[in-house]
TrEMBL record:
Name the record gives this protein: SsuA/THI5-like domain-containing protein
SUPFAM superfamilies assigned to the protein according to its UniProt record, in alphabetical order: Periplasmic binding protein-like II
SsuA/THI5-like domain ranges (all copies): 31-159
Keyword line: Signal
Protein's UniProt keywords contain Ribonucleoprotein: no
Family according to the record: Belongs to the bacterial solute-binding protein SsuA/TauA family.
Cross-referenced Pfam families: NMT1 (PF09084)
Natural source organism: Trichoderma arundinaceum
GO cellular component: periplasmic space
Signal peptide: 1-17
PANTHER family per the UniProt record, alphabetical: ALIPHATIC SULFONATES-BINDING PROTEIN-RELATED, TAURINE-BINDING PERIPLASMIC PROTEIN
Main localization of the protein described in the UniProt heading: periplasm
Single biological process term from Gene Ontology: alkanesulfonate transmembrane transport
Amino acid sequence: MPSRSLVLACLAACSQALDTVQYGAFLPTATYSVANQLGFFTENGLDVVYNQVPNSTAAFASILNGQYDILTATVDNALNFRFNQNQNVTVLGQLDQGPDLVLASIPSITSIDQLKGKPIIVDSPLSGYAYLLQDVLASQGLTLANNDYYFMTVGGTPQRYSALLNEVLPNGTAVYATILTYPFTVEGEAKPSGQAPNILARISDVVAPVTSSAFTIRESSLGNKAETALLTRFIASMYAANKFLLNPKYKACSIQALAKQLDVSQDVATQEYASATNLLSGEVSPPLNDFTVSQTGILNDVEIRLKFGGFSVPPAFNFSAALIPGPGKLIDYSVKDAAVAQYNKHPLNGNCTIPCKRRA
């Protein structure tokens, strides 16, 4: 039970106007679910409006045009927009190392070689996950360059997961395989026999670590004190929630938060918790778990994109130098560091059970 002082603090937060944060994401991560369901945002005076993005192109358009204050998206997309398209996007920090990424297929496909000649549905042929798929399939002898398969653009993971379960797109086009992530990997595995997608490969068995989901903003936000202060409170809330999620002491409470956010059973939520806290592919940022970007992970992203011709930069472009964090660079830790300092000074408890209004 929360302490009396915490209850009073939450009651005060409920009675005060909350500052709105427009948050774009492909799916509700475990860290977001804990922050949302257990009151971390409200405790920090925030009303976080969750905007589920349809695809990576729309997501980055929305962050650049100001529709979103902050976006959680694969860092490879930030690499693409920053270095290939000269768009001023900035990564504040890393959330995970590839959230349960798998190559999944319809039940009748039981091996990768059966995908030869078939379409693989993706968010975008130019997205990081599409390049990871190329790498996994190449490890089994299938290449896009040899026309062993082809990509079909469908959209974000929720749309692709639905199509995989139905085995067809809404227009009747047959579907065979795609890349799945948390929470859909576990949700798919929980389906009855004959309906569950087959897991043909785990990305982490081919390449690890990878830097996947990252907190991304438009660079101009860092020049606005009010926006920076709002972003700092958001990241501080997510940091507190992530610490809570990764602390075994709070496992039961985190599982309850996931079950409620995802609207799944206790058993499925328990499996989702294991997925989210996996030290190789979960919502971790070793060694400190303070949202620091893994240099090994992001260089693996770069290497895979380079392998399949995914950059239009000059051949001598120095990615190692470009990925050193700092002002005006792709990665800027100023907000993350301020958020961690804010949390250390005023820790968030996240145990509020007072029914404040929150938007899921």
